[in-house]
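Hey team,

Filing this mostly as a record. A colleague (T.K.) asked me to run one chain through the structure pipeline before their review meeting, and I want the input and output archived in the tracker in case anyone asks later how it was produced. No errors, nothing strange. Just documentation.

Input sequence:
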Amino acid sequence: VLGEVSPEAKQIVRAADKLCAYIKCMEEKKSGNREFERAGASTLKTIKGLKMPEVEYFMEHFLPSFEMTLDELN
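Output structure:
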C-alpha cells in the first residue's frame, strides 16, 4: 500500500479510466464493431458529467486525433 490517496487524485484517475474506456469504444466502432456504440454513448455521458476542466481540455484538443487515420495524422 502506498499510503492515503487524495480525493483529487482519485478523481483524476477515475477520469483517466473513463477516457481510456471511451477511446477503446471509439477504436472498436472504427473497426466496425457496433457492439461498443451503447457503451461509448454511456461512457461519454459519464465523462461529460465529470465537469473537470482537464477532461474538457483533453476532449477538445486531443480526442479528435483518435478518430483520424495514420495518414491524416501526418
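Quick notes for T.K.: Residues 7-30 form the longest helix (24 residues). The chain has a mean pLDDT of 92.
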